[in-house]
Structures are given as C-alpha cells and as structure tokens.
C-alpha cells in the first residue's frame, strides 16, 4: 500500500510560479515511478509529468514542456512539480500518482498508475 499526500496548490496570476509536493508513505518511494496528472472541470484526467524511481528519467506532456519540472527526493519520499510561466489553461486539480510496477520505464497513461493522492487545486488567473 502507498499513501500519497499533495500540497502546494493555490491561486496564482498568469506568468507566475508554484511548486507542488507529494509525499509518499507505506512502500518506499525509491522503488517506483511517480507522476503528476491534472483534471480540469468537464475534462478527462490528463498526464502532466512523471519521473523514474532514480530520478534519472522524466517525461512531460507537450503542453507543459519547458515550463514544468518534475523532480524527486527519495530521502524524503517526496516528488515535486515546479510550475513556471503558468497559464489560465493550467487551472485544474493536480493529482500525484504512483506506478509501483515500474522503476525505469516512465509511462504516461493514467491506467498504469496504481495509487493516487487526493488532489490539490491550482488556479491561474488571467
């Protein structure tokens, strides 16, 4: 079992920055892939970014490449999402997720992820 708790969401103006954190408990986080997804009202949950267990491999959605950075600190069992140059279309609930079946293969499909956090709201005003 893995429990995930997100934090760091909030309201920010367009062009601003936020850093989301996700702390894992239960199974040690250094043994699995972790990712971020988001869901805007009326839309499907979509992939944002993910990182391998070692932190050496990352993947990003095209819509956030160059603006968002995912990283992890395995000593703290925490994964981060640094979001810069935020746009109103980034407004969504952001979810942290764990794929406990992979370590170095970073997948982008939500059905590959086994555990989810409760989500944190990010609102970007224009």
What does this structure look like?
The chain is an all-beta fold and 126 residues long. 0% of the residues lie in helices and 50% in strands. Strands 2, 4, 5, 6, 9, 10 and 11 form a seven-stranded mixed β-sheet that branches. The termini are far apart. The relative contact order is 0.32.
Q: What is the element layout, followed by pairings?
A:
Elements (H helix, E strand, L loop, with lengths): L1 E6 L2 E4 L4 E9 L6 E7 L6 E6 L6 E3 L7 E6 L4 E6 L8 E8 L15 E2 L3 E6 L1
Parallel strand pairs: 2-11
Antiparallel strand pairs: 1-3, 3-8, 4-5, 4-9, 5-6, 7-8, 9-10, 9-11
- Radius of gyration over C-alpha positions, nearest whole angstrom: 13 Å
Helix proportion:
under 10%
The dominant shape is globular
Q: In terms of per-residue confidence, which ranges show pLDDT below 50 for 5 or more consecutive residues?
A: none
Mean pLDDT figure: 95
Note the beta-strand portion. Answer: over 45%
Largest β-sheet summary? 7 strands, mixed
SSE order, one letter for each helix or strand: EEEEEEEEEEE
> What is the strand tally?
11
Distance between the termini: 40 Å
Sheet/helix structural class: mainly beta
The number of helical segments is: 0
């Amino acid at each position: 079992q893995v429990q995930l708790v997100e934090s760091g969401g909030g309201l920010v103006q367009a062009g601003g920055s936020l850093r989301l954190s996700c702390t894992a408990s239960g199974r040690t986080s250094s043994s699995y892939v972790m990712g971020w997804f988001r869901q805007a009202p009326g839309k499907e949950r979509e992939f944002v970014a993910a990182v391998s267990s070692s932190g050496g491999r990352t993947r990003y959605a095209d819509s956030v490449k160059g603006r968002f950075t995912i990283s992890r600190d395995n000593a703290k069992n925490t994964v981060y999402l640094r979001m810069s140059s935020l746009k109103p279309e980034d407004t969504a609930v952001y979810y942290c997720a764990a794929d406990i079946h992979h370590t170095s293969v970073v997948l982008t499909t939500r059905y590959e992820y086994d555990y989810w956090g409760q989500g944190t709201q990010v609102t970007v005003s224009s």
